[in-house]
TrEMBL record:
Its main location: cytoplasm. The keyword tRNA-binding does not apply. It catalyses: L-homoserine + ATP = O-phospho-L-homoserine + ADP + H(+). The gene is thrB. The lineage of its organism: Bacteria, Bacillati, Actinomycetota, Actinomycetes, Micrococcales. This is Homoserine kinase. Its EC number is 2.7.1.39.
Amino acid sequence: MRIASDHVRVSVPATSGNLGPGFDSLGMALGLRDELEVRAIASTSIEMEIEGEGAETLPRDESHLVVQAIRAALDHVGASQTGLAIRAINRIPHGRGLGSSAAAVVAGITAARAMIAEPEALDRAEALRLATVFEGHPDNAAPAIYGGATVAWTEGRRPHAAALEVGESIETAVLVPAVTLPTKEARAVLPPDVPHSHAAFNAGRAALLVHALAGRPELLLDATEDKLHQNYRADVLGPAMVLMRHLREQGLAAVISGAGPSVLVMGDSLEAAGLGSGMPESIQGIGDQQWRAFHTVGRVAGATGEPVGV
């Protein structure tokens, strides 16, 4: 397959996995996006410019996740490899449970899709499959690709995802601390087995959450209760658990975003509740942290990619 566009632009959203009871299955796209410009150049080199998150720490060579994903996607469709000039504007905080690694992988795959002559060869199902090879599980990659809220699962080794209805009244606010938490550390404290009663509890709450997201925000507090992962992670989550419990005591549907340590709140009238974008005064200092908030109203689009100058 040939490369038809040598200059493409990509946008990909942050995501939150689990959403409380939907451990490793439910996810949602958030209104915070990374942007990427990719040029195919007549050499074997990598030229990378990074602004924002990770500008001082991320690699600028073949080991960068975006580059690896572009390479894997081009190989998958039989397209020729080229040199790459990449400009990345990173807005998704790293190490905060907001799917930054999934966003990088999906951005690379989306860039390759926009470059090739037959983009249908990298449709959303194939993009999810390739992204899951990198990520190990599809719960962040799915909403990054499909947008909105998704449920993801695997059949054998093949991942699948389905879009869920998100009511127009549903808002999100993701609250981001200064501290980070590696996903591996958060997963390491989970037990190998859980009580049957806890599994049954979460199955019921996950089903209720699907219903609540479709436009019943008054059900979200009950629907986001969890017994499978958040309490087990309490010691490593620290400030996030303090804030989550504080908000839930106020009647807000707060959960740990992915593996943490950010906190996701779902509901309606969140700005009126003091959770608008910025540095909400009502939560500053909780857990000895300063919290940044990113507020979103309505469904967030998944990854987009398009040729530049066509």
